[in-house]
Amino acid sequence: MTDAILPGPECTNMLEVRAGVDHVDRALIALLARRFAYMDAAARIKPARSAVRDEARKAQVIANACTEARAAGVPEALIATLWEQLVEASIAYELDAFDRR
Predict the structure, then answer these.
(1) Measured by CB atoms within 10 angstroms of the end CB, which terminus of the chain is less buried, N or C?
(2) Beta-carbon contacts of residue 1 (< 8 Å; ≥ 6 apart)
(3) pLDDT of residue 2
(4) Which CATH number belongs to the domain containing residue 28 in this structure?
(5) Cβ contacts of residue 13 below 8 Å, gap of 6+?
(6) CA distance 77 to 66
(7) Number of neighbours of residue 21 by Cβ within 10 angstroms
(8) 45 in a domain, yes or no?
(9) Residue 20's domain spans which residues?
């Protein structure tokens, strides 16, 4: 095996698969760090703690993720569940950030 990360369909052994998964996981963590930086910004910008939870925006974010999942051929129901958890975690994080300011 080389040090190159192969696309999933090109993997021929579990070492290649695991290297790819680990690579994607590192990228996901970096993206989540960027996302949570936006939660810090939102907590700084929003005028009141009551503005942190926005159910209409939450529904829009989850719907957007489902649309992207459908287009990418990823199971939409799974993405809806993951995004529900992600948005709720983001809200909790933003509430904590709001309280710290």
Answers:
(1) C
(2) 13, 15, 16, 19
(3) 52
(4) 1.20.59.10
(5) 1
(6) 8
(7) 14
(8) yes
(9) 8-100
Q: Two tokens at 33?
A: 């760090």
Q: Report d(CA 74, CA 59) in Å as an integer.
A: 19
Answer yes or no: is 2 within a domain. Answer: no
Distance CA 60, CA 66 (A): 10
Q: Domains in the chain: how many in total?
A: 1
Q: Which residues does the chain have with pLDDT short of 50?
A: 1
What token pair was written down for 58?
Answer: 């939450």
Distance CA 46, CA 57 (A): 14
Residues in contact with 47: Cβ distance below 8 Å, sequence separation at least 6, in sequence order? none
Please give the full DSSP string across the chain, using - where no structure is assigned.
--SSPPPGGG--SHHHHHHHHHHHHHHHHHHHHHHHHHHHHHHHH-SSGGGS--HHHHHHHHHHHHHHHHHHT--HHHHHHHHHHHHHHHHHHHHHHHHH-
